[in-house]
Amino acid sequence: MPKYMLIMRGTDESNAALMAGFEELAASTYQYIEDLVKAGVFVAAEGLDDAGQGVVVDFSGETPVVTDGPYGETKELFGGYFMLEVASKQEAVEWAKRIPAVTGSKIEVRRVAGEDEMPQDTAGSIEERARRESNGQI
Amino acid sequence: MGTADVEAVWRIESARIVAALTRFTGDFGLAEDAAQEAVAEALVSWPLAPPANPGGWLMTTARRRAIDAIRRRTALQDRHALLAADPAVDSAVDEEIDPDRIDDDILALMFVSCHPVLSREARVALTLRVVGGLSSEEIARAFLVSVPTVQARISRGKKTIAAAGVPFELPAAGERRERLGGVLSVLYVIFTEGSTATSGDRLLRPDVAYEAIRLARTLAALEPDEPEVHGLLALCELTAARFPARTGPDGSPVLLEDQDRRRWDFSAIRRGLAALVKASTHGLGPYGLQAAIAAAHASAPSVEATDWDRIVVLYEALGRVAPSPVVELNRAVAVAMATGPAQALAIVDDLIALDRLPGSHLVPTVRGELLARLGRRPEARAELELAARLCANQRERSVLLRKAAALG
């Protein structure tokens, strides 16, 4: 079954509104997670700490440069995610519509690429096969 | 809203709609028919006028169809006329918003779909249809049977339940654990059909296996105090964790010893191990023991580094709580890995002497492997060729023939 990540994208305004009504939102989020668990589609959910506490490791130059967050021009900040296992994109979207979200925030729905979509004969798997052959395992 | 959107809402809402309507009408078959009619209407009208609350729309429409059906019967039964005209009917269905009630309803739906009066095929079809929300086409595709066959199984199943007067309620406490075993076995049948297709040209039907996992997760959320529910969930998660490594690029099976373990799904392993902990609160039952064996494989870095002694002990325990010739055969394989092929061959020969698994390709498969390891090549080859003749899965058969040919 495909996995989908439902990414919460807030703005400064929606994050402020979230903090103002935090307890109510937390209660409805717990109820939402319980619904996901009972529907058998819940994999994981996490919230991210304040973007101001984060750092950015920038690979533009020759060596990685570390700067404090938030992230330059970006208006919408990732605040957390739900990971679901569902049958279709439409089902992921249907669950996304039910997330208790603050006015002004957005939910981005992204499919997690499946293992079978990766190249089957990657350098890694060829190397592993060679290692096992040299060990006499296969 | 297109067909896929209707299907998505249906998948999320179908179990509670059918369950609420069954409680309201007392008629499982009527409830399922009414719900199906509502989906058919949604497929026509949603693309033109998408509803603001799709789940509520489906519930309201299905309730209306159920009332229509009851009214049609009122020509014969006045009692039902009163019921259909009764405003209390509406409030009865509105109770469905009570979350505790929904949990009991969906559990009851699982118990009714897996009721012992039904044949195994009917239990599987009804569970996938009314609890899983799968269409007849999807079920037919999963089990390689025709759509009319699935439809016949579903309608016969509904009639059987009506004829037997099966009440829509959770079984009494004493009966519940026993009946739960039936529900678990249906989910396991669905899972195994998905994890090793019994016939056809594909080794895996992951969609079917994942539907079984989803239903097992639902059951574990609704029955958190039943260790074997967690045991079954753990077994399914740990088995499914190996799916990414189980087939090659061309779809052919990759044996455990050849699997690239880095491709296993580690989040599924973690979920499986967590479920196994919950399963082991009062000693492990048959599903928990099988999950513990799967966990021993999942936590080993290679076949050689697997704790085969522990696996032998677990198979011995499984042989005591759920004796079966397949368990004996698997124990033989574990013994071969832990102590060598000679002791294992004795176990297999006992199985053959008692004719415990007649006609199965698994016995000659294992016997052939053991003989090959003992250097008895011509005998090994004959056994593997016999196994290939008995095997119904084309993918497995070609592996057996390749092995036989390699023995020269």
From TrEMBL, chain A:
Domain of life: Bacteria
Family the entry assigns: Belongs to the YciI family.
InterPro entries reported for this sequence: Dimeric_a/b-barrel (IPR011008), YCII (IPR005545)
Taxonomic classification: Bacteria, Bacillati, Actinomycetota, Actinomycetes, Micromonosporales
Pfam families: YCII
UniProt domain YCII-related: residue ranges: 8-112
Biased composition (Basic and acidic residues): 126-138
Annotated segments matching region Disordered: 113-138
Species, as recorded: Micromonospora pisi
Name of the protein described by the UniProt record: YCII-related domain-containing protein
Automatic annotation (TrEMBL), chain B:
Domain of life of the organism encoding this protein: Bacteria
All residue ranges annotated as the DUF6596 domain in the record: 179-279
Family: Belongs to the sigma-70 factor family. ECF subfamily.
Every RNA polymerase sigma factor 70 region 4 type domain range: 112-160
Protein name (Swiss-Prot/TrEMBL): RNA polymerase ECF family sigma subunit
Domain RNA polymerase sigma-70 region: 16-74
GO molecular function: DNA binding; sigma factor activity
Keywords, in A-Z order: Sigma factor, Transcription, Transcription regulation
Transmembrane residue ranges: none
Keyword Transcription: yes
InterPro entries documented for this protein: DUF6596, RNA_pol_sigma-70_dom, RNA_pol_sigma70_r2, RNA_pol_sigma70_r4_t2, RNA_pol_sigma_r2, RNA_pol_sigma_r3/r4-like, WH-like_DNA-bd_sf
Alphabetical GO biological process terms: DNA-templated transcription initiation
Source organism of the structure: Micromonospora pisi
The keyword Coiled coil belongs to this UniProt entry's keyword annotation: no
